[in-house]
Amino acid sequence: MSARRTPDQEPPADVSPTGVPADQKDPDPRAQQGDRLTTAQGLRVHDTDHSLKAGPRGPVLLEDHHLREKITHFDHERIPERVVHARGAAAHGVFTSYGNASAVTKAGFLAQEGKETEVFVRFSTVAGSRGSADTVRDVRGFSTKFYTDEGVYDLVGNVIPVFFVQDAIKFPDLIHAVKPHPDREIPQAQSAHDTFWDFVSRHTEAQHTTMWVMSPRGLAASYRTTEGFGVHTFRMENAAGETALVKIHWKPVAGVHNMVWEEAQLAAGFDPDFHRRDLADAIEAGAFPEWELGLQVMPDTVDETFMGIDLLDPTKIVPEELCPVQKVGRLRLTANPSNYFAETEQVAFHPGHLVPGIQITNDPLLQGRLFSYLDTQISRLGGPNFAQLPINRPHAPVDDMLRDGMHQTAVHEGLGTYQPNTMADGLPTVSDPREPGVYVTLPTSVSGEKVRENPVSFADHFTQPRMFWNSLTPIEQTQTVAAYTFELGKCESEDVRAHQLRALAKIDADLVARVATGLGLPVPGGEPGDGRDGAGEGPGAGEPDGITRSAAISEVSDVPGPIAGRNFGVFVGDDLVDGLLAVRERIGAEQALVKVVAARGGVVGSGADEQKIDRTAATVRSIELDAVMVADGMAGSALGSHPRTRTVLEEAFRHGKAIAAWGDGVDVLVAAGIDTEAEGVLTADELSDGLLDDLVEAVGLHRAWSRLSALDAAGTQAW
Fold first, then answer.
1. In a domain, 630, yes or no
2. Phi, psi (deg, nearest 5) at residue 205
3. From CA 118, how far away is CA 332, in angstroms rounded?
4. Is 165 helix (H, G, I), strand (E, B) or coil?
5. What is the DSSP string of 494-524?
């Protein structure tokens, strides 16, 4: 044992200041110095892409120390905001069951017809911090907390039905890649940088999700018009004990609607809070957003596949042509949060918050999430008692025998902290597994050697991205090509671009040719996979029974949909507009909103005809309007000749939005260079019911798609 030195003593010549012999190196205080991957304790590992499972298709094992260390560290990387999904908006609402799900599940909130359940729904972006913009290109979260009579059920989903990785052990790596580069902390909230594309090009399982994100689906027009997905396959059990494998969907009643690229860029600068403002304003105005909950129900077979698709692979969808979505209930958001921090920020979702009738499967991404979400909540919310926060508190009776811990707010009485007991009269007691409302894990067989592998059926990474590409209309394909070209064009590394182009070559020859041309790079051939995690085309694995396109993927439709919550901007002159009340009545009947735009704020008209001005020349921009109306009386007015009016009209035209004008308002369109004969541009000598009906139909189609195609042909892309 060495002698203790006093402060004025120098260390011996053969000993360093830290007490380490001179012939040994001090522990390097810097991290990441080795050339071999290790655990935090310096243990070298041979695989960091696969969780330890009981056989290739088995559940993930708790003994996987590498998985737990890796995810635990990831969960604690940010304090206090969420590492992912930091930027969010939320609302309270009610879910009403249709009752037809009783054939599939005994979950009370789904099985009982007319059953109403309070919910809290949080929407979010994934990549950015709390201070980032709403409208960036990103996957978005769509998570719902059901306060059921049987306990809390959390459906923790996304607005895209597949995910980038197949195994949760890769999730920290993915997020590290998509987050800002660690040296400069840029770029914020976007994937147009080298580390992201390096990751997805080398982990080709990510190509399917990447295709969704590069399509218009990556640019939500509003949270009200986003589709939601549970992503994973769940096992459901009905009252008779029969089981099925199920995928869960949210179908927006208002239809699926997304931005074009220029809109998203304008919104990020003009109103970075665009989506949260839109959601809150719609609810406050009484245009309550609605979705129908749908289930894809498939047989619970031993191999857990359906029509050649491995249901445990979270990078695969089941095309709705093969398994239709059965609508089982309706969600309606009716109230905004009273306090953002107490509710939206502190709400704690967890895919392990289950109710009887809904169980998890061996999907390795889902299995890892069961650990990660709980660990994250403990870190973010200061300890294990986050369920006592009002927004997380169950609406069912709780007696959990849990005690103490940080932020304990309940005053527990009695001695019943263990079971069985005599000191508390035996309470609380466990339930008879045959009683209604009791959660009993379904017995399923588990076998196999402990391995870090995926099933061979996980190896096909290109069939479904090809199906997605084929399902897009030509204008959507053009938007997707433009997105790839922009994103890869921002990458500095030629190797990264080349890797991603090789991945695109395995999806579609036309796609890769157009992207490569846009980048000014040679078009690669569709050579076999690079061997990373079986990245080639697996023999039939994931082949969706001959389905080469799915109509449910495209948002383009020739059938008008509802327009509830959409915004109509009416540009008026200096005097009261005749018929403005009629416009409000007709548009309001569709639960859509009218914003009156004038040169200055205040009101127009007087007395009973007085109308509030919602926007002025200084505050209006096309991004918040789904349709632009130019009223009679605009010609020669201050607003009619204002440069902002021309800007709004030009942007609305480029973005394919509906435009209507009547009287001398038509002259304003002509002066702005708007083609009055183009699709979705409606003109009339005077305001009429017919003009308003045509306008409602045009907005129900989302966009005048042929106008976008014409712009592309002219080389003036708006995306």
1. yes
2. -60, -20
3. 10
4. coil
5. HHHHHHHHHHHHTT-HHHHHHHHHHHT-PPP
Among 50, 66, 92, 158, the active-site one is 158
How many structural domains does the chain have? 1
Known active-site residue 158:
yes
Q: What is the number of residues in the chain?
A: 719
Q: What is the pTM for the complete model shown?
A: 0.88
Burial degree of 445 (CB within 10 A; 0-12, 13-18, 19+): exposed
What is d(CA 3, CA 710) in angstroms, rounded to the nearest whole number? 85
For residue 321, count other CB atoms closer than 10 A to its CB.
Answer: 13
Chain centre distance of CA 281: 21
- Say which of 50, 66, 85, 350 is annotated catalytic: 85
**H helix runs in 454-506, sequence order:** 463-471, 474-489, 494-505
**pLDDT value of position 525:** 76
Query: Given CA atoms 636, 640, 644, 647 in this order, what sign does their dihedral have?
Result: negative
Assess if residue 155 is contained within a domain: no
For 424-460, how does the pLDDT look when each residue is reduced to its tens digit (9 = 90+)? 888 888 888 888 888 888 988 888 999 999 999 999 9
The CATH code of the domain that includes 584 is 3.40.50.880
436 domain residue, yes or no = no
Among candidate residues 11, 136, 70, 160, the one with its CA nearest the CA of residue 464: 160
Give catalytic status of residue 85 as yes or no. yes
